[in-house]
Design goal:
The protein has 387 residues and is mainly beta. The protein contains two helices and 28 strands. The two termini are 35 Å apart.
Length: 387
């Protein structure tokens, strides 16, 4: 059942990061106009209008997302005292997302993470990609899934309000073979979960590895650095990488390294030791559970100050943990906040980076998708408060 809610959503005061406990309004959803894309230079098509979908669950958690990039723009969750804050980095307006940004709230695809030297071989043929992370390809290429307009449709499901974005990536787009029909579904359940479901099918053998790329700050998007957040990751191993973040192909134990999050520790405690250029965590964990049919626990993050807890569960074998090392204040986000280094973290369940060029991982992390098969991923971001 759809409800027209403009007055109620306005009453929630969702423009600010911290909001008072709103009156009961959910579960519900609403579609509104968000902005207009500039007319393409070829002059063939007119301007495209971009919609925003607002989902509100029975506990008044609010998720906002847009059909440009299927990007999550806002996510309001309560702290231990029931006070709401917007816990994802992003922009107030479409112009922010068009102006260049490091994948805030996006879905990386058709192949998330890095592909070494922007090329791969499939069934004996070499495919060349755009080297947007010179000399490598990152998160899909020059115009990844984050820069495409999707077809959105919201509904109220038995578990909570939901929106599905559909798009077919044409054969040859960004150099990848096969027309890939993709569906991204966000459900804001009445159990305070953001469930991200991906489905994809192809008409030619291709590669597919999708990853959700929201930057979280459990204290609020405008609350400064996340060094005090406590993180636990269910992985005894990781994939070491070279200086350009291409994995060496080895799988090594985290024990005795700064990357060991098998027991909860703050992000700040071993941040300097993590190394890298710029310094910080930006690596793929080999989740102990491997690939699973149902989402299983991958990571748990606690912000001791607000008491907000985020648990990440996924079907995927890998987890890229990234601490916003490249944020440098140049992105002026919501309410004009300049997002600086370590102001947000990403928990991106996915297959391992550069899997297509790493045959030794075939049994653990296969990114090849064939006609007749369906790529499926479910990742759950579960919110609660520390007891
Ligand atoms: C990668 C980072 C990259 C960032 C871009 C993350 O998924 O791990 O290396 O800089 O995306 O926003």
């Amino acid at each position: 059942m759809r409800r027209a809610l403009p007055a109620l959503f306005a009453a929630l005061g969702l423009a600010s990061a911290a909001t008072a406990q709103p009156a009961k309004t959910g579960p519900a959803f609403e579609e509104t106009k968000y902005g207009v894309l500039p007319a393409p230079k070829d002059g063939k098509k007119g301007p495209t209008s971009v919609s925003q979908y607002t989902l509100i669950n029975k506990n008044n958690l609010v998720l906002k997302c847009i059909d440009y990039g299927a990007i999550i723009t806002e996510l309001h969750v309560p702290d231990k005292d029931g006070k709401f804050a917007d816990v994802v980095l992003g922009f107030d307006k479409l112009e922010g997302y068009l102006g260049g940004h490091p994948y805030f709230g996006s879905n990386a695809g058709r192949c998330a993470n890095r592909i070494a030297n922007a090329k791969f071989q499939l069934e004996g043929k070499e495919y060349k990609l755009f080297a947007n992370n010179d000399p490598h390809t990152l998160h899909g290429g020059k115009e990844g899934f984050d820069k495409k307009v999707w077809q959105g449709k919201a509904t109220l499901t038995a578990t909570g309000p939901s929106v599905t974005f559909k798009r077919t990536s044409p054969d040859g787009e960004e150099g990848y073979p096969g027309a890939l029909a993709v569906e991204i579904t966000y459900t804001l359940t009445d159990n305070n979960e953001l469930v991200v479901d991906y489905r994809a099918t192809t008409n030619k053998t291709t590669i597919c590895n999708l990853a959700h790329h929201s930057y979280f700050n459990l204290a609020g998007h405008n609350a400064g650095d996340i060094k005090g957040h406590e993180v636990q990751i269910a992985a005894k191993n990781y994939t070491p990488a070279d200086g350009t973040l291409i994995p060496t192909g080895k799988i090594e134990p985290v024990a005795g390294t700064a990357f060991d999050f098998t027991k909860a520790k703050t992000i700040g405690s071993d941040l300097e030791k993590a190394g890298g250029k710029p310094v910080g965590f930006d690596l793929n964990y080999v989740l102990d559970k491997g690939t699973t049919k149902r989402p299983e626990l991958a990571a748990r993050v606690v912000d001791p100050k607000s008491g907000r807890v985020l648990e990440v569960l996924s079907t995927e074998p890998g987890l890229q943990f990234y601490t916003g090392n490249f944020l440098d204040g140049s992105n002026k986000g919501k309410a004009g906040v300049a997002y600086k280094q370590y102001n947000g973290f990403c928990m991106e369940p996915q297959k391992f980076p550069n899997s297509v060029n790493t045959p030794e991982w075939k049994d653990k992390s296969d990114v090849v998708l064939k006609p007749g098969d369906t790529y499926k991923q479910t990742t759950v971001y579960q919110f609660s408060v520390a007891k």
